[in-house]
Amino acid sequence: MNHLLKGVAAITFSLLVLAGCGSEDEDFLNYLNGPYDEFLDMEEELDSLYDEYDAALADNDEEEAFVIVKEDLIPQLELMVEHVESVSVEDEEVQDLHDILVEETRLNLESMLTEEEAFEAVSEENDGEQSEQLLEERDELLNEVDAKRDEFINQMEVLMEEHDITYQ
User: Fold this and answer.
1) Contacts of 104 (CB under 8 A, 6+ apart)
2) What are residue 61's phi and psi, to 5 degrees?
3) Which of residues 14 and 102 earns the better pLDDT score?
4) pTM of the model
5) d(CA 90, CA 86)
6) How far apart (Å, rounded) are the C-alpha atoms in residues 122 and 131?
7) What is the signed CA dihedral for 113, 115, 116, 119, rounded to 10 degrees?
8) Does residue 81 contact residue 15 with C-beta atoms inside 8 Å?
9) What's the CA gap between 126 and 124, in Å, rounded?
10) Angle CA(21)–CA(24)–CA(28) in degrees, nearest 5?
11) 41-61: per-residue pLDDT in tens?
């Protein structure tokens, strides 16, 4: 299962120095240390839920996996989408970066909703073919999530360099 932005967390939590401190720099740092940091906290919870989901699948407990999807993963992703959609950023470059995160988070939720449909197709309708199609759709969405994650990381690294922010 794909996990959101783990590599970026290390970068963000390791911010050390801001060389020139203009308002654009402050906007970027405020974003990283505020809304984005809050997002990463939510992501930690999401990662632990994905671990539970993966464990249920490893135990061939599809019923438990479905419960985790429906009762834990989807609500957590909905909370994350709500959070990123509520963020307002004044700096255009930071807003562009944030828009990528919004798209990624929405796509991740959409992939999990599609997975829920696949579980329902098998359990309620006993329709394995429809479930297979839905799982393929979910996989395509997860590929889009990965592409957005890569785009976000690359853009964040560019902005960190432009704003002379260093990290370990």
Assistant:
1) 4, 145, 148, 149, 152
2) -105, 80
3) 102
4) 0.85
5) 13
6) 6
7) 170
8) no
9) 6
10) 95
11) 999 999 999 999 999 999 999
